[in-house]
Amino acid sequence: MALDDLRSALPGYAKDLARNLGSVMDSSPLTQQQLWGTALACAIASRSGIVLRALEPEAREKLSPGAYEAAKSAAAVMVMSNVFHRSRHLLSDPEYGTLRAGLRMNVLGDPGVERTDFELWSLAVSALNACGQCLDSHEQALRRAGVDRETVQEAFRIAAVLQAVGTTLEAEARFGSQED
C-alpha cells in the first residue's frame, strides 16, 4: 500500500485526515531526508502495521541506507526513552529524577546523519509518545542549532497526522463501519 492507497483507504468520516496526509507528505517544507525520516520514525512509533507497510518501501527508496537506519534507530531509542522519562515525570516522587537512567543510547552520540535531522525525528516520536521532557529537550537542541519553529512544528504535524491515520485505519481493519 503506497501513500495514495493510504489516503484512499481512509473512510469518509476521516476525509480531513486524507487531506492532511496529502498536505504533510506532498507539500512539506522539510528536505526529503527530513520528511521521509520523520515519516518512517513516526510510522514505526505509531504501532500501525498498515501505515508502516505503506510508507516503509518509499522511505527506503527516498532515504540513503544510513538515513534509513538512523530513522529506525531514532524510533527505537526514543520509544524507550519516552516511556522512561514520561514515567519519571508522572511519578509524584521527584527522587526518581536524581537516579541514574542506566539505559544505553549510543546512537545519540553518532546517529549517522546530520544531528538536526536525528533531533527532528526524535522530537516527532516524542510527540507521538507524549513525553514532555523529551519534547522540550529535542526542541531546545533544534532551536540552538538554528532550526526555526515552523520546521519544528512540521515534524510534530507529521507525527499527528500519521498517528491519526494509523489509529483510524487500524480501527477500521478491526471493527469496520458498525451501523447501529
Write the topology of this structure.
Layout: H1 3-9, H2 15-26, H3 32-45, H4 49-62, H5 65-90, H6 115-128, H7 132-144, H8 149-175
What does this molecule look like?
By secondary structure, the chain is mainly α. It has one domain: AhpD-like. Helices cover 71% and strands 0% of the residues. The chain has helices at 3-9, 15-26, 32-45, 49-62, 65-90, 115-128, 132-144, 149-175. Helix 3 (32-45) crosses helix 8, helix 6 runs antiparallel to helix 7 and helix 6 (115-128) packs across helix 8. The longest helix is centred in the C-terminal third of the chain and has 27 residues, at 149-175. The chain starts with a helix and ends in a 5-residue tail after the last helix.
What are the defining features of this structure?
180 residues; mainly alpha; AhpD-like; globular
Q: Main beta sheet, described?
A: none
Query: Helical proportion?
Result: over 70%
Question: SSE order in H/E notation?
Answer: HHHHHHHH
CATH homology group: AhpD-like
* Termini separation: 30 Å
**CATH class descriptor name:** Mainly Alpha
Tally of helical runs: 8
The CATH architecture can be named as: Up-down Bundle
CATH domain fold name: AhpD-like
Question: Given the C-alpha coordinates, what overall shape results?
Answer: globular
Secondary structural class: mainly alpha
Mean of all residue-level pLDDT scores: 93
Radius of gyration (CA) equals 17 Å
Low-pLDDT windows of residues: none
DSSP strand content: under 5%
Domain count: 1
Total beta strands: 0
Task: Briefly characterize the structure.
Antioxidant protein with alkyl hydroperoxidase activity. Required for the reduction of the AhpC active site cysteine residues and for the regeneration of the AhpC enzyme activity. Its EC number is 1.11.1.28. The protein has 180 residues and is mainly α.
